[in-house]
UniProtKB/TrEMBL annotation:
Name of the protein this chain belongs to: Uncharacterized protein
Highest classification ranks of the organism: Bacteria, Pseudomonadati, Thermodesulfobacteriota, Desulfobulbia, Desulfobulbales
Source organism (scientific name): Desulfofustis glycolicus DSM 9705
Length: 438
């Protein structure tokens, strides 16, 4: 199912469809010529008619009105808007299972608004960085957190088409943020993240280093044409880096490594532990064309590790299982894919490459399910730098190839040619990778 067809769960944001924001809006005259033409357009797709009726019912219920004429009357009635806002926040608190005083509920809803803005600003600061002025949020929309004010903004012809679209988009993103927050509270993600860190510090990492202490080294990698893949990689001590001179096709990559003790020795390991921020989860829901985080976001807790060799990877995997047992928990590995030893990674996500070697699995232990992605030094530098594989390229491709760029920044409103932007940003990241020493 495409993110941009009539079967998408985000039909209301699709500016290529019948529910697109128009250049002007006049809800006080429902039978004008433009409205009759619009009715004819949506009638061509029965699923769109069904979705429109459901959306209209939700809008009327949310604003406590029975017709679009009553919405028009709300636009200039500040007292009625305030009463409507209080009622709407109560409805949202019950829908998302928020407990607390009215002020605490409003604070939580405001957090959803900040997450919605963070989704757009995160893309503006990286994937669309050279086009930041094109995709910047309209000031009036960015400072508004009240869902009633945003919804009424979408019906107010005093606002430009771009502002009305962004108000509608912000409401949709806030709804996703609310679903994610509810899911996090149901699964105790914050507590699990803390428990996972405690498990690693108590049972996995060597006690020869203090918590938070690292051995700093560099990977010196040599890359070959035409794909900039790693031909050779070696570990360089920090004190020896000054003697290594820049050279075309060479990269220096810093690693802050911990250690774990197994097989009678201390084995170095670079580790990046992450809990996906809400804006990243919202983007994942969009990419997967899904509104239910329980279905789409299966990697809330994750660990990325880099070891010197495939042999060390196997030792670490066994060490994890034994560490879980010492912590009084059985550990099972699920959904294992291993392309480090010559197999081929099966890429399923839009924009991802099957050329990326890694060991990937989910570990279920201590009431948690944690995603592990494990690399060797060679596969790690390929993950960072190889053409068609590098993570920066992947981030660009998955935003454009999934349809998220078109959905959030429709060309008719933002005047961007997404095919050209995609190519330009991949070229930008390639230059940065291949021309930067470290």
């Amino acid at each position: 199912m495409s993110l941009l067809d009539e079967h998408s769960v985000f039909t209301s944001l699709n500016q290529q469809g019948p529910l697109a924001v128009s250049d002007a809006i006049d809800i006080s005259r429902p039978f004008r010529r433009e409205n009759r033409a619009w009715v004819s357009r949506i009638s061509a797709h029965e699923i769109t008619v069904t979705k429109y009726r459901a959306l209209r019912s939700q809008i009327f219920e949310f604003l406590n009105v029975h017709s679009f004429r009553q919405i028009d009357a709300l636009l200039d009635d500040q007292s009625a808007r305030s009463e409507c806002s209080n009622r709407a926040c109560l409805l949202l608190s019950n829908m998302f299972g928020i407990r607390g005083t009215p002020e605490e509920i409003r604070t939580r809803v405001s957090e959803y608004a900040r997450t919605a803005d963070a989704v757009i600003n995160s893309l503006k600061s990286k994937i669309f960085a050279p086009y930041a002025s094109h995709v910047a949020i309209t000031n009036e929309v960015e400072i508004t957190a009240d869902p009633v004010d945003l919804l009424l903004m979408a019906f107010d012809d005093r606002y430009h088409k771009k502002a009305r679209f962004e108000a509608q988009r912000k409401l949709s993103l806030m709804s996703l943020a609310g679903s994610i927050d509810q899911r996090e509270r149901e699964t105790d993600i914050e507590e699990n993240f803390s428990l996972f860190l405690d498990f690693l510090n108590r049972y996995v990492w060597s006690t020869s280093l203090k918590i938070g202490e690292h051995d700093i080294v560099y990977l010196l990698s040599h890359h070959r044409d035409p794909d900039f893949s790693c031909d050779e990689v070696s570990v360089i001590r920090r004190e020896d880096v000054a003697a290594v001179m820049p050279e075309a096709g060479r990269k220096l990559t810093l690693l802050k490594r911990r250690r774990f003790t197994a097989a009678g020795r201390d084995i170095p390991i670079y580790v990046s532990i992450r809990k996906k921020p809400p804006e990243a989860k919202v983007l994942k829901l969009l990419r997967k064309n899904e509104k239910n985080p329980a279905v789409a976001v299966d990697d809330e807790l994750g660990l990325m590790a880099v070891l010197d060799s495939a042999a060390d990877v196997k030792i670490f995997q066994k060490h994890l299982t034994r560490s879980a047992t010492r912590a009084d928990s059985f550990m099972i590995l699920e959904d294992i894919t291993d392309s480090l030893t010559g197999g081929r990674h099966k890429a399923t996500a839009k924009g991802s490459s099957s050329k990326t070697p890694m060991l990937k699995f989910f570990a279920r232990l201590g009431g948690m399910r944690v995603e592990f992605i494990i690399h060797t030094n060679r596969s790690w530098v390929n993950y960072l730098y190889q053409r068609d594989v590098a993570h920066d390229e992947y981030e660009v491709k998955r935003i454009f190839d999934s349809g998220v760029a078109d959905l959030l920044f429709p060309p008719a409103i933002y005047f961007l040619d997404h095919h050209r932007v995609r190519a330009a940003m991949i070229s930008f990241f390639r230059r940065h990778i291949e021309e930067t020493w470290r």
